[in-house]
Specification:
Layout (H helix, E strand, L loop, with lengths): L16 H9 L2 H12 L4 H7 L2 H4 L4 E2 L6 H5 L12 E3 L4 H14 L3 E4 L15 E4 L6 E4 L4 E4 L5 H9 L3 E2 L10 H6 L7 H4 L6 E7 L5 E5 L4 H10 L5 E8 L1 E2 L4 E9 L3 H17 L4 E9 L14 E9 L3 H8 L12 E7 L1 H5 L11 E9 L4 H12 L7 E6 L21 E9 L5 H18 L2 E3 L11 H8 L3 H11 L12
Parallel strand pairs: 2-4, 3-4
Antiparallel strand pairs: 1-2, 5-6, 6-10, 7-11, 8-9, 8-10, 12-14, 12-15, 13-14, 16-18, 16-19, 17-18
Helix pairs in contact: 11-14, 14-15
Length: 506
């Protein structure tokens, strides 16, 4: 069943050459140096630093003068439409190094793009050099070591397909079209997380091109300070050109459920969330169940009388034996004292589970997602969450309660950049809309929601992948919490000129 938004992109991010000219005018010297490098007509020093671009980048380098620039600059989140100085498509580590060197020497700064699905817009920026590694898509599975090695352009679906062929997997997100690299280096939550940790927790090694244009290895034994930092704040320290993951065994089929409950008001939502909290606290760590709110779609599986009304949806997956999983999911399927509007409960292969929500967030729509990790899902927080769920500003906005705990809490809060290790749940306020005129309405709802949570709950931080579109120091402090200080020190060591911080977060 598809629950995609029916709203079409309104064209608010259509390419405007006047915008491009304005950005270019503010970077005249840098763009001149870049043009010299691209044309091969620059000084010997410039040519030596950048290499032969046409040879290094079979995919090309696209600038605002090129006809394909509009497509080249486009990213998934229409709210983050930007006008970069150029988009380069390296296909090798050496090519990536040349892009980084050029970004540093021209002063443009760099934004790295693999899948382009960053809700915070970190894969683009005005006046920066975008390094698009999306064509680097190799995957190798080592059965003896139970590891997978991937290049930076691999998607979650491609990684899952390669590993599950052997009964193995590594925790990733829940949308197969999303890039592995961006999701992992921002933490990465998914259906396997309570059983096996965050996506970044299963990293064993990363090959990274640093701000100096050098390839370095980051692991527990080599550059451990860098390895610690990139697991959660990876985009601030370099361009990952290879990632190695530890794999875990997954059953041939997993138990899952998707149940939609009718709700009339905030009190009705709160009643079911109280029951959900109790079920979660009693569930084994392999159980990952997430309630969210949605409008009842006009589809044959749902009663006509409820179309357009709010429903509390409960999506659950058990990462272990499906027989055990069905028993573990059963309490979540009977929240409240009313029959569900819709219920789907099956055993599915892991790849089918991972594809269940595929393409649920259309390319080009506008997204502003903010998360808050809370130590305890208290009665007061349940009331606030229920109230925000019942007052969504638009048809596609939602609030998601994402369970933490289990293996996520096995690491200390300072072992990686992710500080939310002690959280019981993460509350995601996800504003999704298509009309640019409604920006203020949806922004305000999400920001007010986060502020309300902070007023009544003990907050441990935010998920880097769901941190809104702000890129300032205050946002970074909110995201990284007590880890911000040592991350700043690592940033000064590995990227002292801020080549990877056109955003200025660290």
């Amino acid at each position: 069943m598809s629950r995609e938004s029916s709203a079409a992109t309104n064209g608010a991010d259509e390419f405007d050459r006047d915008d491009a000219a304005a950005v270019a005018a503010t970077h005249t010297d840098a763009l001149a140096s870049l043009a010299s490098a691209l044309d091969g007509d620059g000084t010997a020093t410039t040519r030596a630093a950048t290499g032969e671009w046409r040879t290094l980048f079979p995919g090309g380098v696209v600038t605002p003068e090129d006809d394909r620039y509009d497509d080249a600059r486009r990213v998934w989140n229409g709210l983050c439409a930007a006008v970069p100085a150029a988009v380069a498509y390296p296909t090798t580590t050496e090519g990536v190094a040349r892009v980084v060197e050029t970004a540093r020497e021209t002063g443009l700064g760099i934004a790295t793009r693999s899948g382009g699905h960053s809700s915070a817009g970190t894969s683009t920026g005005d006046g920066v050099l975008v390094c698009d590694v999306g064509t680097m898509q190799g995957v190798q599975v080592d059965l003896e070591a139970a590891t997978a090695t991937v290049e930076p352009g691999v998607t979650i679906g491609e990684l899952d397909a390669a590993t599950t062929e052997h009964g193995l997997a590594t925790p990733q997100g829940v949308a197969p079209e999303v890039g592995v690299t961006g999701l992992t280096l921002g933490g990465g939550t998914g259906y396997l997380s309570r059983a096996h940790g965050l996506a970044c927790d299963r990293l064993t090694r990363v090959e990274l091109v640093t701000a100096a244009g050098e390839q370095v290895t980051a692991s527990e034994s080599t550059n451990p300070d860098l390895f610690r930092a990139i697991r959660g704040a990876g985009g601030e320290f370099g361009v990952a050109v290879e990632l190695e993951f530890d794999l875990v065994a997954v059953p041939d089929e997993l138990a899952m459920c998707d149940v939609w409950f009718p709700v009339d008001d905030a009190a009705d939502v709160a009643e079911r969330l109280h029951e959900y909290r109790q079920c979660l606290r009693e569930a084994p760590r392999e159980t990952n169940v997430s309630p969210y709110v949605a409008r009842v779609p006009d589809e044959e599986e749902f009663p006509d009388s409820r179309v357009g009304e709010l429903a509390l949806c409960v999506l659950g997956v058990h990462a272990g034996d499906p027989k055990v999983g069905e028993r573990a999911l059963a309490p979540f399927r009977t929240l409240g004292d009313r029959d569900p509007l819709f219920e789907y409960a099956e055993r599915l292969p892991y790849t089918a589970v991972q594809s269940y929500l595929a393409n649920g967030s259309p390319q080009g729509d506008r997204y502003y997602w903010k998360s808050v990790a809370v130590t305890e899902f208290t009665d007061d927080l349940i009331d606030v969450t229920a109230e925000r769920m019942a007052t969504l500003p638009g048809a596609d906005d939602t609030v998601v309660v994402w369970p933490m705990g289990g293996a996520i809490a096995d690491l200390a809060s300072d072992e990686t950049a992710i500080p939310e290790r002690s959280a019981e749940v993460v509350l995601n306020f996800e504003a999704c809309w298509s009309d640019a005129d409604a920006d203020d309405t949806h922004h305000s709802w999400a920001r007010e929601s986060v502020a309300r949570v902070r007023e009544v709950g003990e907050v441990t931080g935010e998920l880097p992948n769901f941190s809104g579109t702000e890129r300032d120091e205050n946002t970074a402090r909110d995201v990284f919490g007590d880890n911000y200080g040592w991350l700043r020190e690592a940033k000064r060591q590995w990227d002292p000129e801020g080549v990877f911080s056109p955003s200025g977060r660290l």
